[in-house]
Design goal:
Number of strands of chain B: 3
Oligomer: heterodimer
Order of helices and strands of chain B: EEEHH
Order of helices and strands of chain A: EEEEHEEEEEEEH
Distance between the termini of chain B: 51 Å
Structural class of chain B: alpha+beta
Protein backbone atom coordinates (compact mmCIF):
# COMPACT_ATOMS: atom_id res chain seq x y z
CA UNK A 1 0.00 0.00 0.00
CA UNK A 2 1.06 3.58 -0.55
CA UNK A 3 1.98 5.44 2.63
CA UNK A 4 2.57 9.17 2.89
CA UNK A 5 5.34 9.68 5.43
CA UNK A 6 6.59 12.66 7.37
CA UNK A 7 10.22 12.48 6.26
CA UNK A 8 10.46 9.98 3.43
CA UNK A 9 7.77 11.28 1.08
CA UNK A 10 5.31 8.81 -0.41
CA UNK A 11 6.47 5.22 0.00
CA UNK A 12 5.20 1.87 -1.29
CA UNK A 13 5.00 -0.62 1.60
CA UNK A 14 4.28 -4.33 1.69
CA UNK A 15 1.05 -4.92 3.56
CA UNK A 16 2.86 -7.46 5.72
CA UNK A 17 5.16 -4.70 6.97
CA UNK A 18 2.26 -2.81 8.53
CA UNK A 19 2.17 -3.14 12.32
CA UNK A 20 -1.10 -3.28 14.21
CA UNK A 21 -1.22 -1.53 17.60
CA UNK A 22 -4.64 -2.63 18.95
CA UNK A 23 -4.57 0.04 21.66
CA UNK A 24 -2.75 2.66 19.57
CA UNK A 25 0.02 4.49 21.45
CA UNK A 26 -0.44 6.55 24.61
CA UNK A 27 -2.07 9.87 23.80
CA UNK A 28 -2.84 8.77 20.22
CA UNK A 29 -5.09 5.79 20.87
CA UNK A 30 -7.09 6.30 17.67
CA UNK A 31 -4.10 5.59 15.43
CA UNK A 32 -3.48 1.86 15.24
CA UNK A 33 -1.51 1.14 12.06
CA UNK A 34 2.19 1.90 11.88
CA UNK A 35 5.31 1.07 9.92
CA UNK A 36 8.95 1.26 10.91
CA UNK A 37 10.93 3.36 8.48
CA UNK A 38 14.59 4.14 8.30
CA UNK A 39 17.23 5.66 6.10
CA UNK A 40 19.36 2.67 5.10
CA UNK A 41 22.55 4.70 4.99
CA UNK A 42 22.37 6.19 8.46
CA UNK A 43 20.45 3.42 10.22
CA UNK A 44 23.41 1.09 10.71
CA UNK A 45 25.32 3.94 12.32
CA UNK A 46 22.63 5.48 14.43
CA UNK A 47 20.21 2.59 15.05
CA UNK A 48 17.48 5.21 14.83
CA UNK A 49 14.29 4.49 12.92
CA UNK A 50 10.85 6.06 12.67
CA UNK A 51 7.57 4.75 13.95
CA UNK A 52 5.35 6.18 11.22
CA UNK A 53 1.56 6.13 11.38
CA UNK A 54 0.19 4.90 8.06
CA UNK A 55 -3.11 6.63 8.86
CA UNK A 56 -1.74 10.12 9.62
CA UNK A 57 1.39 11.34 7.80
CA UNK A 58 2.27 13.92 10.48
CA UNK A 59 2.36 11.27 13.21
CA UNK A 60 5.91 9.93 13.18
CA UNK A 61 8.28 9.46 16.11
CA UNK A 62 12.02 8.81 16.03
CA UNK A 63 12.71 5.56 17.87
CA UNK A 64 15.88 3.83 18.94
CA UNK A 65 16.99 0.35 19.93
CA UNK A 66 17.41 0.61 23.74
CA UNK A 67 20.53 -1.55 23.65
CA UNK A 68 22.28 1.11 21.58
CA UNK A 69 22.14 3.52 24.52
CA UNK A 70 21.62 1.29 27.55
CA UNK A 71 23.29 -2.07 27.01
CA UNK A 72 21.73 -3.58 30.10
CA UNK A 73 18.17 -2.31 29.50
CA UNK A 74 15.97 -4.80 31.39
CA UNK A 75 12.35 -3.63 31.46
CA UNK A 76 10.07 -5.28 34.04
CA UNK A 77 6.41 -5.67 33.18
CA UNK A 78 3.46 -7.98 33.77
CA UNK A 79 3.18 -10.65 31.06
CA UNK A 80 -0.57 -9.95 30.89
CA UNK A 81 0.18 -6.57 29.34
CA UNK A 82 1.71 -8.36 26.34
CA UNK A 83 -1.58 -10.18 25.57
CA UNK A 84 -2.50 -7.74 22.75
CA UNK A 85 0.67 -8.92 20.96
CA UNK A 86 -0.55 -12.50 20.53
CA UNK A 87 1.66 -15.57 21.02
CA UNK A 88 5.33 -14.74 21.37
CA UNK A 89 8.69 -16.05 22.49
CA UNK A 90 11.18 -13.62 24.03
CA UNK A 91 13.18 -13.55 20.81
CA UNK A 92 10.15 -12.40 18.77
CA UNK A 93 9.90 -9.20 20.80
CA UNK A 94 11.47 -5.99 19.56
CA UNK A 95 11.80 -3.03 21.92
CA UNK A 96 11.98 0.55 20.69
CA UNK A 97 12.15 3.78 22.68
CA UNK A 98 10.58 7.07 21.59
CA UNK A 99 13.17 9.84 21.33
CA UNK A 100 12.78 13.55 21.87
CA UNK A 101 15.24 15.44 19.67
CA UNK A 102 15.43 19.17 20.46
CA UNK A 103 17.87 21.53 18.74
CA UNK A 104 20.28 21.27 21.67
CA UNK A 105 21.95 17.92 21.02
CA UNK A 106 22.97 17.48 24.65
CA UNK A 107 19.28 17.30 25.51
CA UNK A 108 18.28 14.37 23.28
CA UNK A 109 16.34 11.89 25.42
CA UNK A 110 14.71 8.48 25.10
CA UNK A 111 11.62 7.25 26.92
CA UNK A 112 12.91 4.24 28.86
CA UNK A 113 9.76 4.21 30.98
CA UNK A 114 7.31 3.40 28.20
CA UNK A 115 8.88 1.34 25.42
CA UNK A 116 7.09 0.27 22.26
CA UNK A 117 7.09 -3.51 22.18
CA UNK A 118 6.58 -5.20 18.83
CA UNK A 119 5.97 -8.88 18.16
CA UNK A 120 7.88 -9.60 14.96
CA UNK A 121 5.88 -12.80 14.42
CA UNK A 122 2.38 -11.32 14.60
CA UNK A 123 3.28 -7.75 13.57
CA UNK A 124 1.40 -6.39 16.56
CA UNK A 125 2.64 -3.67 18.90
CA UNK A 126 1.87 -1.95 22.19
CA UNK A 127 3.32 0.83 24.31
CA UNK A 128 3.77 -0.38 27.90
CA UNK A 129 4.67 1.60 30.99
CA UNK A 130 7.27 -0.56 32.76
CA UNK A 131 7.55 -1.18 36.49
CA UNK A 132 11.22 -0.20 36.91
CA UNK A 133 11.53 2.79 39.22
CA UNK A 134 14.89 3.81 37.74
CA UNK A 135 13.96 4.10 34.06
CA UNK A 136 12.95 7.72 33.46
CA UNK A 137 10.66 9.09 30.77
CA UNK A 138 13.52 11.40 29.78
CA UNK A 139 16.68 9.33 29.75
CA UNK A 140 19.48 11.55 28.46
CA UNK A 141 21.02 9.80 25.46
CA UNK A 142 23.82 12.29 24.92
CA UNK A 143 25.24 11.68 28.38
CA UNK A 144 24.89 7.93 28.01
CA UNK A 145 26.65 7.88 24.65
CA UNK A 146 29.49 10.00 26.08
CA UNK A 147 29.87 7.52 28.94
CA UNK A 148 29.91 4.62 26.51
CA UNK A 149 32.57 6.33 24.39
CA UNK A 150 34.69 6.95 27.48
CA UNK A 151 34.40 3.32 28.50
CA UNK A 152 35.35 2.15 25.03
CA UNK A 153 38.37 4.41 25.13
CA UNK A 154 39.66 2.90 28.38
CA UNK B 1 -17.25 14.40 35.46
CA UNK B 2 -19.70 12.12 37.26
CA UNK B 3 -19.26 12.28 41.06
CA UNK B 4 -20.50 9.40 43.20
CA UNK B 5 -19.96 8.80 46.89
CA UNK B 6 -18.93 5.33 48.01
CA UNK B 7 -18.00 3.74 51.31
CA UNK B 8 -15.14 1.28 51.76
CA UNK B 9 -15.88 -1.98 49.88
CA UNK B 10 -18.50 -0.36 47.71
CA UNK B 11 -18.01 -0.32 43.94
CA UNK B 12 -18.78 1.48 40.72
CA UNK B 13 -19.38 -0.35 37.43
CA UNK B 14 -18.26 1.32 34.19
CA UNK B 15 -19.60 0.10 30.85
CA UNK B 16 -20.28 -3.61 31.29
CA UNK B 17 -16.84 -4.91 32.18
CA UNK B 18 -14.98 -2.45 34.40
CA UNK B 19 -15.44 -2.34 38.14
CA UNK B 20 -13.84 0.17 40.51
CA UNK B 21 -13.88 -0.69 44.22
CA UNK B 22 -12.85 1.39 47.24
CA UNK B 23 -10.60 -1.01 49.15
CA UNK B 24 -9.36 1.13 52.01
CA UNK B 25 -9.35 4.70 53.26
CA UNK B 26 -6.47 5.83 55.47
CA UNK B 27 -6.50 9.52 56.22
CA UNK B 28 -6.07 11.25 52.86
CA UNK B 29 -5.09 8.13 50.98
CA UNK B 30 -7.68 6.01 49.21
CA UNK B 31 -6.79 2.54 47.95
CA UNK B 32 -8.73 1.77 44.79
CA UNK B 33 -9.13 -1.64 43.11
CA UNK B 34 -9.87 -1.87 39.39
CA UNK B 35 -11.23 -4.95 37.64
CA UNK B 36 -10.93 -4.58 33.86
CA UNK B 37 -10.22 -6.78 30.84
CA UNK B 38 -6.54 -7.15 29.85
CA UNK B 39 -7.24 -5.06 26.78
CA UNK B 40 -7.91 -2.02 28.95
CA UNK B 41 -4.83 -0.32 30.42
CA UNK B 42 -5.11 1.29 33.83
CA UNK B 43 -2.62 3.98 34.83
CA UNK B 44 -2.13 6.59 37.55
CA UNK B 45 -3.16 9.82 35.79
CA UNK B 46 0.12 11.65 36.30
CA UNK B 47 2.12 8.81 34.74
CA UNK B 48 -0.25 8.57 31.78
CA UNK B 49 -0.07 12.31 31.23
CA UNK B 50 3.71 12.31 31.43
CA UNK B 51 3.98 9.60 28.75
CA UNK B 52 1.39 11.32 26.57
CA UNK B 53 3.36 14.57 26.71
CA UNK B 54 6.60 12.70 25.95
CA UNK B 55 5.03 11.04 22.90
CA UNK B 56 3.78 14.43 21.68
CA UNK B 57 7.25 15.93 22.11
CA UNK B 58 8.78 13.02 20.22
CA UNK B 59 6.45 13.77 17.32
CA UNK B 60 6.99 17.52 17.22
CA UNK B 61 10.53 18.14 18.41
CA UNK B 62 12.80 16.84 15.70
CA UNK B 63 16.10 18.42 14.80
CA UNK B 64 17.16 15.99 12.06
CA UNK B 65 20.85 16.91 12.01
CA UNK B 66 21.15 15.97 15.66
CA UNK B 67 19.88 12.49 14.93
CA UNK B 68 22.62 11.86 12.43
CA UNK B 69 25.39 13.16 14.68
CA UNK B 70 24.39 11.47 17.89
CA UNK B 71 26.86 8.62 17.75
CA UNK B 72 29.74 10.38 16.05
Amino acid sequence: MKVVTKFFGEVELDDNKILDFPNGIIGFEDFKKYAIMYDEESQSETRISWLQSVEEPALALPVIDPLAILPDYAPMLEDELLKPLGESEDEDLLFLLAMTVPSDMTKVTANTKAPFIINAKTCKGVQIIVDNADYPVKFNIYESVQRMKEKAGE
Amino acid sequence: MLALSRKVNESIVIGNNIEVTILEVKGEQVKIGVKAPKSVSVYREEVYTQIKEANKEAVSDVAQENLKNLFK
